[in-house]
Every structure is written in C-alpha cells, then in structure tokens.
Amino acid sequence: MADIIVVGAGLSGSLAAIMLSRRGFQVTIVDRYLTYPAELRAEQIVGSQLRIFDDLGLSEKLFSGVRLVSRVRNVRLGKQLTTVLASHYGMPYQDIVHAVRGQIPDDVRFIVGRVTDIDTGSDPVVHLDNGQTVAAKLVIMATGLNTTLSKRLGVHHQTISAQHSTTVAFDILSPKCAAGDTPILVYYGNGLQDRIDYLTIFPCKGVLRGNLFVYRDPLDPWVRQFRRAPLETLLEVLPVLRDELGEFSVEHVQCRASDVAVVRDHQRNGVVYIGDAYQTPCPAAGTGIGRLAVDVERLAFHVTRWFAANDLSVSSLQSYYNDPVKCRSDRKALKSAQFRRSVSMDPALRWAVHRQNVKAKRFAKYVLQRVVHAGLDLAAYYGRSTTPGRSSRHYSVRPDGA
Ligand SMILES: Cc1cc2nc3c(=O)[nH]c(=O)nc-3n(C[C@H](O)[C@H](O)[C@H](O)COP(=O)(O)OP(=O)(O)OC[C@H]3O[C@@H](n4cnc5c(N)ncnc54)[C@H](O)[C@@H]3O)c2cc1C
Questions:
Q1: Pocket of ligand 1 (CB under 6 A)
Q2: What is the pTM of this model?
Q3: Ligand 1, atom 44: nearest CA belongs to which residue?
Q4: Would you identify the CATH topology of the domain 2-42+51-66+93-160+261-345?
Q5: Domain 162-258, CATH
C-alpha cells in the first residue's frame, strides 16, 4: 500500500508528487494520459509564480532553452504607461507539465489510467478503468477541470461566476518584431464597450504568442468574428498594435471560456483537493499557478503532521483547508477575478467612480512627472547659464519658449 496516491499528473499533481516524495512518502501518481495533451491553459510563468520551481530546484531544467524575458511594457490607450522588470517565461502548458513530470523522482510509481471511483474510508482504495485497484492512506485529488470523479464521490463544484472570461490565444507573425527580441507587451482595453481586459504578447517556443482576455462568452458574435477574421477584429479594438508589430498576421486562434468555481461538500476521510480541482481561477487574473503552488506547499506541510499523528480523518484534514496562507490565496484569487471583470466592464456607479479615480491618479502622476522634468530642465538651464561649461541634461524647448 502506498502512503499517498495523487490522482492527476497536471501541474499541481506533479508538483505535489515531487514535494511529498522528497519528504520521504511513498507516492503513486495516476493520470489518464501518459503525455499531457495539447490544451489551452497557462502559457506564461511570471514573477512570483517562479518561486515554487526555484524552491524545488526545478527551474534550471524546466526553463533550459526557454528564453527569459525580464522587461514588461504596459500600453494603455496607445500610450506606454510603465516598463516593469519581472521575469517571464513563455511555454505551452503541455511542455510545462511534461518538464515537471520529468522531474518526478524514480521511486514514485506512475500509473496511466483513469480513476473511476474511490472507496473513501480509513484507507481509501482507488479504482481504475482497467479494473486495477490501489490502496493508500491519503488520496490527493488533482484532477483539474474534470469533475466526473468528484461527482461520483458526491462532491460538487459551486459556480461562483459562469463563463467568467474567455481566453483567446494565437500566434503572431510579424516581420518587424521577432520572437527573440521583444519585451512582453501588455495592451489594456479601451473602455467598457470592448469588454477587453488586456492582451499580452510574448515569445513562446520560437513564435510570438498573443493571449487576449475578454469578458464575453465564446458564442458571442465578437468572439465568432475574431475566429473568422482575427487580424481585422484585433486591429479594430487595438489599432495601436500596428505601431509595434508593423504588418503582422494572426494564426492558430484558440478560444476557451473559464468558469470560476469552488469545490463544495468535499470533506472525506483520507481525501484532499488541490489546484483547479479545489478552485478554478480566472485566467485574466493570472492566479492559477500561484494558487496551486500555495496549495501544494501548504499541503506538504500538513501531510507531514497528519502522518506523524497517524490521523487522516476529516477533522484532521481540515487544518489544510483552514490554513491561513491557503485561505488568503484562495480569497485573493476570487477577489482578483471579480475585480478585473468589474473594473473592465461593470457600468455600475461604484466601478465608474473607481475608473475615474484611476484615471485621475494616472493623470496626476503624469503631471507630476512633467513638473519634475520641467524642474530638472529649468535647473539645468540656469545651471548652464551661470556655470560655464556645464551642459544641460536633455531639453528640447527652453523654459522661456525660445
Ligand atoms: C485558457 C486558460 C488560460 C490560463 N492562463 C493562465 C495564466 O496565464 N496564468 C495562470 O497562472 N493560470 C492560468 N490558467 C490556469 C492554470 O492553467 C491552471 O490553474 C492549472 O493548469 C491547473 O493545474 P492542475 O494541475 O490543477 O490541473 P490540470 O493541469 O488540468 O491537471 C489535471 C490532471 O488530472 C488528470 N485527470 C483528471 N481526471 C482524472 C481521472 N479521473 N483519472 C486520472 N487522471 C485524471 C488530467 O488528465 C490532468 O492531467 C489558465 C487556464 C485556462 C483554462
């Protein structure tokens, strides 16, 4: 009998198997697929999301041969707002999972098969579609968006927001802007009417990739139009793209809608939920990988204590669900999903006021910057006129307008 069975070898299940096996547990991991299928999911690992890969010592192998981009340019209403320094890797999700699976230690047993049922109890037993059964003390449910097995266990997912957002992903072919030398570009939507949160453009496996996050359902006429005529539809809402990308084309369009949902009635002896199986994120909020990393880290901490106390009852497992770090990360992901949608498209007064405040702050910041620059120019101008030989920083118009 294994100590632990992980059901699902996506990102969360594979990371959990690595972390728990390194802590000395006997781990078996089961997945429907030997090779994770090509599906549209997270294609970017950014900033603090890298921490779990660094902490587990996976980064070197995971990102070997993947281009690190460390500059992100934010563009709103055609104007560059800020340049942010943040580490960013672009990789198809199946490649991320493949690379992480490759780091699962040899002593972890990998079974390819679909789990059809689980007998929950003091020592749960997992049933596979080939008739095989595997017993363990703890089952970790890392089944992602597939809820069939959960339903079989009487566990359901409460939809917090149905079809919350749609991710539109595509390749960009631009002779002006090669995948190799572009910073990450983030273009924000222009207002309520276009229902766009943002478009991010980044290098991914030798091409320039676009991830556009919109608050429309996949059957919305605009999304259909995007599928039919992606370039024209994109330029209609973000004409500024021409400045950066020149004459470009758009290919391989994929669309995927996401619900925001949370697991309910899931407390069973010897069974815990992590990753998307516990709570699904809004892709636009970019919280999926960070949230599942917190689940895996906090779970590893609690598992050690449960096994030491030899107690895997519902009440003991509750310590993981009540873990303050996990609760904060779950709440933050839900809040961020709701916030991004409301700020991008909610016409209610509260959000209209919020948008006006943001605009006002941005304008104040802009004015402040201009005043500081003007002050510096003025100082340089008078410094130069009173101190012969000292040259001004850069100014194109003298303060007296001459
Ligand atoms: C379109 C889209 C874009 C996204 N973009 C971002 C982003 O930019 N940034 C970000 O942070 N997050 C993003 N996310 C979220 C992120 O991709 C997910 O949070 C993450 O992939 C979840 O990983 P997981 O391991 O929980 O689930 P999965 O990767 O789905 O793994 C589940 C695994 O369980 C297996 N499985 C399921 N049922 C069974 C069964 N009965 N028996 C055996 N095996 C089973 C499956 O085969 C699969 O391998 C995005 C999500 C989507 C849908």
A1: 7-13, 30-33, 36, 40-42, 44, 93, 114-115, 142-146, 149, 167, 256, 258, 275-277, 281, 283, 286-289, 292
A2: 0.90
A3: 31
A4: FAD/NAD(P)-binding domain (3.50.50)
A5: 3.30.9.100
